[in-house]
Design brief:
This protein is an alpha/beta fold. The chain is 30% helix and 26% strand. It has one domain: Rossmann fold (3-Layer(aba) Sandwich), CATH 3.40.50.150. Strand 6 and strand 7 form a beta hairpin.
């Protein structure tokens, strides 16, 4: 994986092969950040990266100047890799080793951008539980967005506060916003 833009532009980060992950493709990540770039000043926001895996999305936000990033994953190897990479590049990424659903049920941490990249094998009910918990616990700051990455074969458009989806190859990003 590579960092698309910002301070660490073009840096390649190689994750260990034994991590249970499916990193967001560079093409999809670049498209996502083009959308976000039109909405947010990256140095003014806070980010919550759920099912963080390799930390790919967290690194991109850090490279673009975001100083408040929290990455949540239940795999110790993923958390260890994110911590090592964040330290190596002096990135402001705080990690939490936790089951994401348990974290969302108890968390009071609010963010402008919440990004979730759960396993594509999740059921639609499991995918829909993410926005349900985020909005039930009021975890988005005003004007914030929840983005859930999923396969184009998964439809979560009936989930609470769904706004729109964008498709990039086999990847899809669904956007959720608090109604005004």
């Amino acid at each position: 994986m590579r960092i698309i833009s910002g301070l660490y532009k073009s840096r390649r980060i190689t994750a260990p092969k034994n991590l249970p992950v499916r990193p967001t493709t560079d093409m999809a990540k670049e498209s996502l950040f083009n959308i976000l770039n039109n909405t947010f000043y990256f140095d003014d926001i806070s980010v919550l990266d759920l099912f963080a895996g390799t930390g790919n999305i967290s690194y991109e936000f850090a490279s673009r100047g975001t100083a408040q990033i929290t990455a949540v994953d239940q795999d110790f190897g993923c958390i260890k890799f994110i911590n090592q990479t964040a330290e190596q590049f002096d990135m402001p990424i705080n990690t939490i080793k936790s089951d994401v659903f348990k974290f969302l049920e108890k968390s009071t941490l609010k963010a402008n951008v919440i990004f979730a990249d759960p396993p594509y094998s999740f059921t639609e009910e499991q995918f829909s539980k993410i926005p349900e918990l985020v909005f039930k616990n009021n975890l988005l700051l005003e004007g914030g967005v929840l983005i859930v990455e999923h396969s184009k074969h998964t439809d979560i458009s009936k989930s609470i506060n769904f706004s729109y989806s964008k498709s990039y190859g086999g990847n899809m990003f669904s956007f959720f916003e608090t109604p005004e």
